[in-house]
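Protocol step 4 of 5: obtain the predicted structure for the target chain.
Materials: sequence only (see below). No template structures provided, no constraints applied. The aim of this step is simply to have a reference model before the mutagenesis design in step 5. Sequence pasted as it appears in the construct record:
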Amino acid sequence: MVETSDIRVVRCGGSKVNLTPPIISSDSRYPFVLCTSGDLVKVYSTRTEEWLHSLQGHTNQVTGITLNPANHLQVYSCSVDGTVKLWDFIDGILIKTFVIGCPLFAIYVLSVIVLSECFQLVSVHLPKSAEQEVEAKEMSAVSSHISKNPSCTAFGRGGEYIAFARHLQLNVYFFRKQKTYSFSLKATDKKGAKNAFTCIACHPTDDCIATGHEDGKIRLWRNFIHKKEYTYSTQHWHHNAVNTLCFTPEGTHLLSGGIESVLVQWQYGAGNRKEFLPRLGGSILHISASSDGQLFCTSHSDNKITVIESSFKVCGVIQGLVKDAVLTDLMIDPRSKALVLNGKPGHLQFYSLLRDKHLYNLDIVQQEYIYEAGLDQFEVVKAAFDIKGSWLATVEERGKKSSDLEFFLKLWAFDERTQSFVLNTTITAAHTDRIISMCFSSSEETTMLVTAAEDSQFKAWCQGADADTQQDQNFWSCDFVGSYHKLNPTNCSFSADSSLLAVSFQEVITIWSPDTWEMLTTLCQPPGVIRDLCFGRLSCSKYLLGTTTKNLLCCWNLLTCELEWSTSVDVSKLQPDPFSENVAAFSYQSKHTDLFVFKPSEPRPLFTNKNVCSEKVHRAVFVPREEPLNSCDESTQWLNRSQLYFLTQNMDLLTFSTATEEDRMLSSSKQLVIDDSVAVTPFYLLLGKHRQQQQKLNTQSHPVSDKPQQTQGSVTIKELLHTPAHVLPAASVLCSMFVNSFLISNTGVQQDPLRYFVHIRLKSNGFSYSVMHLLSISLKFLNSFI
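Step 4 output (structure tokens):
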């Protein structure tokens, strides 16, 4: 058993981006959206919706971000790790770290932070210091009656007072007077509506506080400076709780959102005049506005951020990995190598783990989803790909009780023209009871699907043949129906070469031949119902593995039909690696999950990792690497060909990373890489050929040891190339710096000015406008050499 610290568990792409309200940068020409994502702060472009870079430095969940009032190019972030960090979010540079010393759950302007355990609201003084890491010890308590929901706290009138609500009580604390005024509501009104507070927003210029409530009402509080003379007016549109409120910077409108997924814009001071932007996706959790009021941001329960113009037009969508209700297994699309799992209701989502980007949704149910609690609607519960990625099988169902159960089995064919899956066959009565397992054959020659259901049967489905012509058709039909002593099947699995099919019936495993549909043998299982079932791969293909509800992991030798070995371990997920002989087993015990990686031929684990996470692991998948690792260490060899991803009960997507892999990624990120796949343009043909010819001449005329020393301009150009094109200054600002880089050094060795044009063009297509502008200036400069 090998345990090493070279492999560590890391958060990968797909963390929640809707945990806290997103913020929009102050630059109206090139605005950015910043949002928290696990222990990172991600920066997106509102123009292209692309992820630009991440602010990495926290060691735990980031719980809040806010722009620095003194510098609009900087942002503060707080985390459960007990630190506040100041960033330059344009360049992704950490400027300073303030150590608070206790978990932080929200941060507001004026350095007011919500702290943990009893959720106190305190004011923290951030000292000025030249050091990068500073301890912030000066703290003063504002209130201990604070809600754990950060949306229930807001500042008003430029920081003159702070309003915070908890349950049925609204509190307003005035900093100058150092007094707190409290206002209470009854639990229900005369009509039985619930009055509990759910969110707060303060008007930027007037003494007005807007509060949202569980019954969908919005109250506007005034005259709260005088405790006995306060008044409030009520506005009502939402039929359920108001999740978030936000005033526009000018204070002319109030924005609200809730479970209806409709953004409501109320005109301030005009009664119930309002506008609507419907069908935004999941429930609206947070609303943010840019400092100039030109852009709004809404974050949704389906892990999505929507960018909206002030004219109420959607101009961008930043979609994260949806993980709220994962009913399918984690799958890898053989074609795109994307992670596939449940997405928004009734859909499968395709997500690129390499780029950390949502690719597209595939509508399986093909019905409009109604966001209403308690409605019984269709959900995708099973999905599977064939080995080539040409076919996709899905099962959708609704009805919690067997008497109300309704489900469909669908087969989807990949369309080369649209590069997506198209519905091919819908089977309305595949079984008489719920389908609990299905799998495709592993053979590339023939495609077969096997489904097992609670009606005591398993069925094999193949592409049908016309009765007259005997030619294969596109539709699918049932080829075989199997059962065993009227027992309910629990799982099914094909061998690596599809020559065997294993179907477990309660405590018995049956082995079938798909060619003749003859039951070859049965394997008597020690006490316990079979949960997971899988064959070995490559050199271990003669073994069959199974886990039981009696906490046993067993391995059979299919050549002798005998039990090879067994061990007592509570395996919550058994995941074979299709690219090697390795098998990963997650075991939950003593309030934490352990990982064991082993080969079926040897009961001794190759690798073990204690306390991988504190929750159970029910979903896992091996993802093939684009470039295999060359690790010779026994403890890391199992990660050479593929990488293991797993999903916890808290919907955290985690993976394993080696120290060598992290060092390689860090070094590659610091190097300038020119992509050869960039389109060949006339500009490239003009300068690229000249550069290649010049390089040949330089190689022949100058030995390697006589390379000229780079001028100071080369450093300038290097910084220029490392900066994203869309955040660069205007071309007029760069002209003098760019032309000065062509000057001849004191050593008398002339630099090649044309090579910079090739690098810049290859760096980004978006920079071409600046390059072409500079080209006319530079060509005049080059004429002086002729």
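Step 4 remarks: Residues 682-701 form the longest helix (20 residues). The chain has a mean pLDDT of 81.
Proceed to step 5.
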